[in-house]
Each structure stands twice: as C-alpha cells, then as structure tokens.
Amino acid sequence: MLGKFWLRFVVAALFVLAVFPDPAGAVAQRPGRTPVVLFPAFHLSKLAVTVDHRAAVPGCPSSGTFEDWYLNDRPGTAFSQVCRDRLLTLRYDARSSRPMATRFSDVPGVHVRLLDYGRTSSAPFYEPLYRALEAHGYVRNADIRVAGYDSRLTPDMGGFLERTRRLVETAYRDSGNRPVHLIGHSNGPLYAQYLLTHTTRAWRDRYIHGFTSVAGNMPGQGLLYSTLFTGLNVQDFGYPTTRENAESSARMYLSAPSSYMSASDPAVFGDHEVVVRDDSTGRGYTPRDYPKLFADAGLPVAKEIADHYIGFVKFTDRRSFPYVDVHAEKGSGLRTIVGARLARLAPGQLTDDSRFLYRDGDSNQEDLTNEAVGVWRAMPCHRFDLTDNPGVDHFSLPGNRAVLDRLLTHLRVPRSACAQASMSPRPAR
What we know:
The chain is of the alpha/beta class. Helices cover 30% and strands 17% of the residues. A six-stranded parallel sheet has the order 7-1-8-9-12-15, with helices on both faces. A four-stranded mixed sheet has the order 11-10-13-14. A hairpin with a 4-residue loop joins strand 10 and strand 11 (283-285). Helix 7 (223-230) crosses helix 8 and helix 11 (290-296) packs antiparallel against helix 12. It is globular, with a radius of gyration of 23 Å. The N and C termini lie far apart (48 Å).
C-alpha cells in the first residue's frame, strides 16, 4: 500500500515539474554551460533572394538569385546594386482598415528567406564571439544559436516572435533544460527586447537566464533620418556614389518599417541633436521635427509609417522593462555621424565627409542612444550594469576581449531570484 502511494506521489511530482515552469525562487544554475542565442545587428543576418519570372522591375533581370548581407563575400554580378535595392523595396498598402504590420509585402515574384536560420553560419560577422565561446567548451548550433531576422522588417512581422520563441525553447531543451542567455548587438537588442516584452513572466522564468545588450539601439539613432534621403549600401555600409544608386537605396529604406523603428525617438532625444539640415532653406530638423521633415519633403507615406514605428519597441517605462538580468556594453569617445546636410529634401542625395553632422559615440551610434538603456537600473531585484569601453568602436565591441571576458563571467553567474513584479510587462495579444 505504501509502495503504491509513493509511486503515485513520484508520478504526480514529475508531472508538475514537466508542466509548470520553475518557481521564481528556484533559479539555481544547473550544472553545465548556459546556452546562448545571438540577435545580430542591422543587415548582419544572411538573406537569400530568389527572383522568378513574375518580377517586373524595369532594367533588372526577371529571374535569378542573390544574397544580401553586410560583407557578403559572394555578391555576384547578375544583379547590380541598384537592381538589388529595387527588388528589395517593399510595397506598402495604405488602406487604413488593415493592421500596419500586414501592409508591407515584397515585389511580386521576389521571395526573401533567412539563410541558415538558427546556425552560426547565418551571421559570419560574429566569428570572434563564436570562437571565444568554443574555447570554453561551447558547440556551434548546439549551445550557440543565432536568431536572425529580415532587417527590413520590424519584430511584429515575418513570424519573428513565434520563430524566435521556438529557437529559444529548442536551445533550452537541447542543453538539458538550462535557461538561455540572450545576446544582442546594435539593432539586435531591439528584437530581443520585443521578445522579452511579448512573452509571459512564467515563460521568461523558465527559459531566460539573462540578456547582454552590446551597443543596443533601443531608442534609435539620428543617422537613419538622413539615410532616408542618401541611402546606404548593405554590402559595405558605404554611401552611394551615383544619384541612381542613392535614389534606389533611399527608396528602399523609405519602404522598410525597420528604418523608422531604428530612427531616434523624439520621446528620448527631443531636440538634442540635428539629424537633417536642408541647405536649400537653411532649416535644421531634430528628431522632434520629424513630422515637419516628411511634410517639407513631400513624403506623406513616410510620415504615416513613422507615426507607427518610431519608438515602436518600448523600453523606458516600468511596464516595458525586460525583467531579466541585463548586462549592457557601450563604446564612447569616437566621432559619430548623427545626420547630414542635404542639398534638398528629396531621395537620392549624394553626401561625403564634409556634409555629415557629428557628436560623441561609438562611431556608429551616438552617446544618447548608447546610454538610454540606463533606465533599466530601476528594475526591482534584477541585476543591471552598463559598462563603458572608451575608444572601442561599434563593430569591434562584440569581438573585444574585455567584453567577451565579461560575457563569459556573466554566463556562469546564476540568475537573480526575483518574485514576480507587479509592473512586469504583459505580452501583446
């Protein structure tokens, strides 16, 4: 009789442990390595683009394939840079009855997919990070995963949330049910933050160990406003040198909702920096002036998209805190572009070093961007630290030895044992 009782008790206990997440206080680190999931920067995830016979873009091939990502070592010659831009320019349906996230689509006949999703080969820029983890026993594509995304899209689009949740849960299970540490670089933390604020507290308590934000672009950056007029080539992040390329690139960014999500949010920046100066009128525009900027430029669709997506990923109010342990890294002390002087307010403007507007930062994102995440110091219970790396530029941070040493230390530290906060964010329905 006693044996049957204990058998039923053990079965019931195993059922409870399998179905319900670990209680908030029971967060002791399990033996073994903490798995990591990396969220790459803007256009550092590989995209594979297939163009079939239905595509009709004047002057461009109607079929073929190409890849699109920063430092692509196989760009090919079949599609010019201008054609790549035009084929990747999203179509926007301005019908107000449709939800904003459903109004964007690819050119008919153009199919874009993430290449090697989940695998380290999908974001080769981060080789120094992968090698540092491997030196401490990590195994690629096992306890190192990569949550890539189409950088034209915002995290409410393209199945990002569902796909990324599955990846985190798989990394958790494949590592012996060990909570996963999220690492984001540049725009990547925007997508990681969206995941954290669109999942339940129970889900985070079960699956998330912590979050390392490397130069997180949480409130956006001023540079994106001028890019809507000058363009920026993904291949090398260089500025176009012909008007045709400047216009094709600028129109591509104008069509992408992520351009506006990544532009400096006036709620954080106010009028602390000029992001566009129109030489034809002498007028300067700050982030707070963006409605006037788009009105003066005759870009009403850009204004409509901007109204929805500027400041889209919330992070400053208590209900939008991530409520996990956060370790943030930033660079400083470097001349950083925040905007440009333009001959006029029209897509297709050429620019050079003499026409850029600067302030202090990490060479890519200004100080206002990199320090904004400091509001998370107000998180109750959960750890937060922001480490400055003077003289280390934006793209060197993820491979910097000191940054990597701190990451490896944080991966070994048990997460904070925090009771559920009353202001914890609620997932979107």
